[in-house]
Amino acid sequence: MAREKYQTLTEQMFYILLSLKNECCGVDIMKIVSEMTQQRVTIGPGTLYTLLDNFVSQGFITQTNIENRKKNYIITESGKEMLKKEYNRLHKLTDDYETFMKGAL
Question: Do 26 and 49 touch, CB atoms closer than 8 A?
Fold first, then answer.
């Protein structure tokens, strides 16, 4: 059985969606993600714009404004649901770890 696309998010996907809580452009997204993660996660332009196009087509974000070549985006309700789903999945992972490793360390 084929795995559903976006069943889980990569770190880059997660932080892109998180950064779009407020409207911003691609350059701002790269800066926000870098600052948010203390430079642990970086996103190059090729990856960023590919993911932004995919997220728009999936309805996770919407394009809000275009000025010359600068495009602004913001997360949609569907994107917020996906982000929350991933947040909950990550919490389940850490809960499982804590339960399993309790007393093992």
Answer: yes
- How confident is the model over 46-97, as pLDDT tens digits? 999 999 999 999 999 999 988 888 899 999 999 999 999 999 999 999 999 9
Cβ atoms of residues 17 and 75 within 8 Å: yes
| HSE value, Cβ hemisphere, 13 Å, CA-based, for 95 | 6
> According to CATH, what is the number of the domain 11-101?
1.10.10.10
CA dist 23 and 33 (Å) reads: 14
What is the percentage of the chain residues whose pLDDT exceeds 70? 91
Assign 70 to helix, strand or coil. strand
Question: Residue ranges per domain, the chain?
Answer: 11-101
**Torsion sign across C-alpha atoms 16, 19, 23, 24:** negative
